[in-house]
Amino acid sequence: MTSRHLTIALDIMGGDHGPLVTLPASLRAIRQYPHLTLLLCGDESVILPQLESLTDAERQRVEIIHTEQSVGMDELPTSALRNKKHSSMRRMLELVEQGQADACVSAGNTGALLAMSYYVLKTLPGIDRPALISSLPTASHKKVYLLDLGANVNCDSQTLFQYAVMGAVQAEQVSGITAPRVALLNVGEEQIKGNDVVKATAHLLSETPGINYIGYVEGNDIFTDAADVVVTDGFVGNIALKSCEGLGKLVINEVKRVSEQNIFTRIMAKIALPLLRKIYSRVNPDQYNGASLIGLRGIVVKSHGNAKSDAFLYAIREAMQEVERQVPTKIKDKIEAVLMERP
Amino acid sequence: MTSRHLTIALDIMGGDHGPLVTLPASLRAIRQYPHLTLLLCGDESVILPQLESLTDAERQRVEIIHTEQSVGMDELPTSALRNKKHSSMRRMLELVEQGQADACVSAGNTGALLAMSYYVLKTLPGIDRPALISSLPTASHKKVYLLDLGANVNCDSQTLFQYAVMGAVQAEQVSGITAPRVALLNVGEEQIKGNDVVKATAHLLSETPGINYIGYVEGNDIFTDAADVVVTDGFVGNIALKSCEGLGKLVINEVKRVSEQNIFTRIMAKIALPLLRKIYSRVNPDQYNGASLIGLRGIVVKSHGNAKSDAFLYAIREAMQEVERQVPTKIKDKIEAVLMERP
C-alpha cells in the first residue's frame, strides 16, 4: 500500500460484540499504519478509556465522534432509518458523505447498513442499486468474487448488468486481476438455459465489449476457478451461500459425532475440524474479510456481526485498499465507458 | 410394502453407464420383489443376453420393450422431444401414459426427461407445472424434502403454491410425516423479507388451512429440521444444491491435500474422506435416492445420470413406494381440497 494519508470512519458500537472487538482492532490498525487516521463513532465514555495505551503520536490519529444511539442487530432497516439518526452507524456514513472520511467500516446489522448507506450516500451515476460483494475461496487457492449477496432480492437485467460491471471493477482493482472473467450464475451452461432475467442479462453482456463476459456457470462452478466474478441476484446469492453454510454445520456435527468412536476417529476430528471450520468460515463471506457494499458514492465495508478482532482489522484493511484503488471512481468511469460502447 | 402386483417401466439405455448399471439393478429388483414386473425399454440385443441368469419364474416378470433410439445425455430437450420418439425414455413414459406400467424410472438426461414427461403424461388437474423433488439429510438424521430442484426456473406464486401442496403430499405419503411443516425458502425469516413472488406465495399459503405452513426458512435452515418441506423455484433450488456440491468438492480436495503431510493427517483423511463423500452424495439429490418428478398424471423417478447399481435399485424402490401410496391421486385430491378451502 502507498502512504497517502487515509481517514476511515468506524462504527464502534456495531456487531455482536461492539467495542470489545472493534476497539482492539482499531488500536492495532493505528499502530500498524502510520498513514491512517480513524474516526471512532460511538459512546465516548466507552471508547476514551481504551485509548490510553496509545502513544501521543498515535493518539493524534484517532478522533472520537461521540454518538448516543446505536442500531440493534435485530432492528428492522426501516426502523433504523427512521429512529436512529444519531447512531454510530449513521454518523459513520455521514462522515463519508461529507468528505471527512475516505471510507467506513461496520460490523453492525446488515439490513440497516444497506438501507442507511443507500439513503445517506446514494448510488453512483448509472447504478440503480448497490450490491453486496465478497470474495470466496476456490479449489486452486485463488479468489472468486460473488455478488449480489443479499442487497437486492428483486433484480432486473439492467441491475444484474450493472452488477457485472461493478464486480469486474472490484476484482480488477482490489485483487489486481486483469480483464476479469465475468460469468452469470445459472442452472446450466447452455445458452437456452435460465430464467428470463438471466437470459436478458446475458444478451446485454455479450453486446458489451468492455466486459470479459464468459457466459453461464453453475452453482458448483463458483468454487472451481471457472470465473473471476460470478453475478447473480441477492436472493440466489444469499441462499446459495447460506445453504453452503448450513451443510457445513451438518458436516461438522457428523465429524464430531463420529469422533467419539475410537482413538483414530478422535485423531481424525482433531485435524479435520479446524480444517473444515477454516474453509467454511471463508465461505461465510463477511466472516472472512468483510463484504463490500459497492455502487455507492463512497466506500462501505461490512464486517461480520460476530467478527473477532482479526476480522474487523481485515475489514479496515479492505476499506484502505478500496480507498487507495479509488474503487467508486473506477466503477463510475467503467459504467460510463460500457454504456457509451454499447450498440 | 404390500404385495399388490406392480409394473414399473425402466429406461434401460439412460444414464452415463446405460445397461451396465440399469440391467444389474433390474435383476436385483426382480429377485427381491416377487410382486414386481419390469418392462425393460431398450435395445433387445443388449438386454436379452443379460436375462439368462434369471429363473423361469423370475423371467416371466420381465418384458423387453425393444427400442431403436436412445436420448443422449447432452441432447437438448427440444431435440429429444422432436427426434427421439422411438427412444427408450419416450417408450417408458408412454407405457405409463397407456396404463401398462404403474410408474417409470430413468437415469437419463434430466432436461429431456422433464420435457418428455410433461409432454407425454401432462400435469394433474390444478397443477400448472411438474416439479423435481428430493429428500435431503438433516442434522438430526431426519429427512427434508426440497423442491423444485430445477424443473422450472420461472415460477410465479401460483406455481410455488402448488409446489407447496405437492411437497406436503410427497412428505406425508412417502415418508409418513403427519401434517408436514411446509416452509418457503427466503433470505430472512421476517415477514417483510423476500422477493415479490415469495411474499405473494406466503400470503396464499397462510390463507390455506389444509397446509401446515410455518413461514420462511433461510438457506442454512434446509439442513436443521426447521421444516419437513422447503419450497423454492427451480432456479434457486438447483443453484443452492449445486453450490453445496461445489463446496463439497473443494473440501474433499483440501482434505486430500493436507493428508500428505504426515501419519496423523493420513489417518484423518482415511476416516474423513468416506464420511464427507457419504454426506455430500446425500445432498446430490439424485445420487442419493432418485429425485421424483411430481405433479404429473403418472409416476416418474429420476435416478442420477452417474448412478451405480445400488442407486438405480433405490430409485426403483422409490417408484414402487409412490405407486403403493398412490402419490399422484393424493396430490390431485389435496390440490382440489385446498383450492376448495381457500377463502
Automatic annotation (TrEMBL), chains A, B:
It comes from the Bacteria. It is found in: Cytoplasm. It catalyses: a fatty acyl-[ACP] + phosphate = an acyl phosphate + holo-[ACP]. Pathway: Lipid metabolism; phospholipid metabolism. InterPro entries: FA_synthesis, Phospholipid_synth_PlsX-like. SUPFAM superfamilies: Isocitrate/Isopropylmalate dehydrogenase-like. The keyword Magnesium does not apply. One of its GO terms (molecular function) is phosphate:acyl-[acyl carrier protein] acyltransferase activity. Keywords: Acyltransferase, Cytoplasm, Lipid biosynthesis, Lipid metabolism, Phospholipid biosynthesis, Phospholipid metabolism, Transferase. It is an enzyme of class 2 (transferase). The keyword Endoplasmic reticulum does not apply. Homodimer. Probably interacts with PlsY. Belongs to the PlsX family. Catalyzes the reversible formation of acyl-phosphate (acyl-PO(4)) from acyl-[acyl-carrier-protein] (acyl-ACP). This enzyme utilizes acyl-ACP as fatty acyl donor, but not acyl-CoA. This is Phosphate acyltransferase. It comes from Fluctibacter halophilus. The lineage of its organism: Bacteria, Pseudomonadati, Pseudomonadota, Gammaproteobacteria, Alteromonadales. The gene is plsX.
